[in-house]
Design goal:
By secondary structure, this protein is of the alpha/beta class. The chain has helices at 16-20, 40-57, 117-128, 157-171, and strands at residues 2-6, 29-35, 61-65, 82-91, 109-111, 138-143, 146-151, 178-179.
């Protein structure tokens, strides 16, 4: 996978779909490109969200974009055997955005015992993660100290799974647990 920063390039967001998605004056974006494979979308979400969170720490606004940009007008590079997963708009927004509504935590996870504090912190962080259309189509299971995360059905749910796993890890850090791969 390679993550490409595309600067001062307004054409990707100069289309009807971009205006439908409420994007204006977007000239900078990050393209997430990689080799096709079993966990391609999940890895794109995971590593892309790490970049998003760093950009946010630096005072930039970001937005995951899958459909509302013009693929034919972009300047990112795709090699043979690779594909574009999505782009992330990058810059200074007119607003800081609005929080999305969350599903109840209990509907998105199951534990084999009373919920440990570290798992709760991980789930609280996962609930803050952006997901496609804010649908939160993921489910976490805790058995022993092993966490399993699964994507639900729908568009971009595997990408979302990578994003929420990155958030869960940050919330559950410093605890003795592992992913079930």
């Amino acid at each position: 996978m390679h993550i490409q920063l595309c600067l001062d390039e307004p054409n990707a967001f100069d289309s009807f779909m971009a205006h439908y998605g409420s994007f204006k004056n977007v000239k900078n974006y990050i393209a997430i490109v990689g080799k096709k494979g079993k966990d391609f979308e999940e890895q794109c979400g995971y590593w892309g969200e790490k970049v998003v969170l760093k950009a946010t720490q630096l005072g930039l606004n970001t937005c995951w974009v899958a459909l509302t940009f013009s693929k034919g007008k972009t300047v990112y590079q795709v090699e043979k055997g690779e594909k574009l997963c999505c782009v992330i708009a990058l810059g200074y927004g007119e607003t800081q955005g609005v929080p999305h509504k969350n599903k109840p935590m209990e509907s998105l996870c199951k534990t084999d015992r009373p919920m440990p504090e570290w798992f709760k912190r991980g789930m609280e962080a996962a609930l803050l993660a952006p997901t496609s259309l804010n649908q939160q189509k993921f489910f976490f299971t805790l058995e022993g100290n092993t966490v399993t995360a699964k994507a639900g059905l729908g568009f971009y749910t595997k990408l979302d799974l990578g994003i929420v796993k990155a958030h869960f890890e940050m919330g559950a850090q410093d605890a003795a647990w592992q992913w079930n791969h």
